[in-house]
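Submission sheet (multi-component)
Chains listed below:
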Amino acid sequence: MKLAQLRVGENGAVRRVQGSDESSFRLMEMGLTPGTRVRVNGVAPLGDPLHITLRGYKLSIRRREAEGIEVDLLP
Amino acid sequence: MSAPQRAQESEAKSDPQARSSDSASASAGQSADLWVAIAGNPNTGKTALFNAITGLRQKVGNYPGVTVERKVGVVSLPSGRRISCVDVPGCYSLVARSEDEQIAHDVLVGQIEGTPEPDAIIVVIDASNLQRNLYLATQIMELGAPCVIALNMMDVAARAGVEIDLGRLSQEIGVPIVPTVAIREQGIDALCKTLEQTIEAHTGRRRAAPERRWRMEQTIEGRVASLAAELAHHSAAPQRADAEAIWLLSSLQEADELVGINPHIRSQVLDIQRALDQAGTPFRASEIQARYDWIEAVTQPCVRHGERVGTDWTGRLDALFTHRVLGPALFFGAMALIFQSIFTWADPAIGAVEDLFAALSAGVQAVLPEGSLRDLITEGIIAGAGNVVVFLPQILILFFAINLLEDSGYMARAAYMMDRIMGRVGLHGRAFIPLLSSFACAIPGVMATRTIENRRDRLVTILVAPLMSCSARLPVYTMVIAAVFDADRSVAGVFNVGGLVLLSMYLFSIVAAISMAFVFKSTILKGPRPPFILEMPPYKLPQLKSVLRNMWERASVFLSRAGTVIVAVTILLWGLLSYPKDVELSRDFEAERIRIEASLADAAARREALRGLESAESAERLRASYGGRLGRLIEPAIAPLGFDWKIGIGLIGSLAAREVIVGTLGVVYGVGEADEESVPLRERLRSERHADGSRAYTPLVGISLMIYFVLACQCMSTLAVVRRETNSWRWPLFMLGYMTALAWVASFAVYQGGKMLGFA
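Outcome: structure written.
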């Protein structure tokens, strides 16, 4: 499944970041690498972007970017 | 720091030379031929650390050729030795593409003029966010310079329950680590001591990157090794070949024109990249993964995550501030509050400034003999300076508010909430901050667009930033509102007419900016949307000291950039409007004056009559002056907007700086003269009549004028900055053209439309 499909409060582990453009690399450099645990904290009032926690810090990314991140749902 | 050093510091602090000299080395003082660079992620307290170790011995300027800010200071080491220190722009990676990050990389390798390759680098790391911060650290460590890690924000980490075994971590990474809490200036002494030790340990040794500790899979490493061997052959620094190979493989792109790379090497790099892509192990992804794998392996045994101490304020505040309904509501409420405070609460200060300059003018009048010099000083220089300084209170309030929001961490949340709306018109969520800054002044706003990586998006943001009603328009709005409306009449008990009209102007400007952004993005600057990846730092209580400091810095920029232009233009206008002096007048004003003085016994009536006479004479003289002629020349073009030639002069003058129109109208209406019959400008505008007796400044004219100012490009300084940021004259000229056209059309529509609806 994709990060964009996780619901608020759910945790996931990144499987991989699709794409090889600048934005994909940027996401990886910010710590979204295979195996990384992420938690979806919330969504902006208009539905986009998403607010997530990873590696001890909070990050905001658009749904579009989140659609390119494969994750495994964690309990 | 010890007492003798403190004494040294305060000496340097009060030494104006150290602050105002142009070259960094002059302020660095005697023995400073060594350089240390301070680098790190954004939001790590890097600036606070920089301030803490350099004291106030800093110089702010720009890197050559770009508008990225460069801060250079002097550090006093425990031995008494002083070295220069440069604050590198905050970045997440040295390979990334935004201008800030490119500059950061260039400074750290010594490729920027004026800043030599650093002899040491302090890497500032946020202790509560270790892993991502270490990513940049791994890149920096490969550059070859000796590094010291300042593990900052230890207090935040402690509260979050994070415990770090510093000794072990330092051993694993291979770099000394010093814990600090920069905003409380804790750990600074130890940092300087370690810095000195590190520098001494490395002097004389050839620059070599420490043995790379993170590894990729064998096939990739093999490729890297072969490239490194090739590089060692050609390079002047063979011991850095491995680091160079990594750098090239991760940053070189086919479409690049990286200067200075041997074409043979270049093709080899591209070959390796292609081969690895085909094998399913693309280099960049593997490299990033490998770095993080190593970081995880290293931090896992050294970091313990315990229970959080105290409340999770960030979580709680976020629940409130990014709430679906409350979030935007609170945001707009805050914005409304800021605007109301600018309009109303700055009044006492404004009054004080006005009084001050009036007194100054009167003082000069009393001392100097009548004549051109006196007029130049009172109506040109003092009046001009007054017109600049009088708006300082409002600017300070606005900058104070913006800095408060930024420092507390709230701005990121605002950008996060606004992204969807911005996205609808093709703008980036990050465009929000530059656009918001443009409410204070478009100059730092345009400069702040640097964080928008995509060139097209950046251009669109730059083009619409001046549409955001900047603080220079505020004088115009204030003057017009006070002149044509009953500004203090209360509405709904909390707001007043003046505040509401002002708010609507601001809202209109936002609508204009958004619309134009949409237009541009759909037409000339069409392209895909860039990603929105924004860190949301933990909320923190803004430090008053730093908020005030930033506020004052920004205000100084406004004063120096716009202020000088305004004074110069005020003087120029005074000249245009005062000369020629020998003109033919329709009446013998002097004779009439004598007659009135002789015939009218009642003092009040006499004053009234003389005032009327004076207005008439001033008007005639103005009409005959150079400025008047110019105004009359453009009058046909602006008459459909409800403006006359006097406003015409104002418009021409304010092309240099918007608020000049206030000074101009002051001169035009003779308010600069300090005699007992002078009335403040707003009274003068209120009483101004056309030849047929009708009010010159009706509410409709007022609104038409304000609308014109919302949209028109009346600021040479902005154009100059846009030119610097876009590196060509094409965009500034385009900006001037489209904004003037837009302003004319809108004003026309408002005025003519209003007339048709019977509002005249």
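Remark: Chain A touches chain B through 33 residues (CB under 8 Å).
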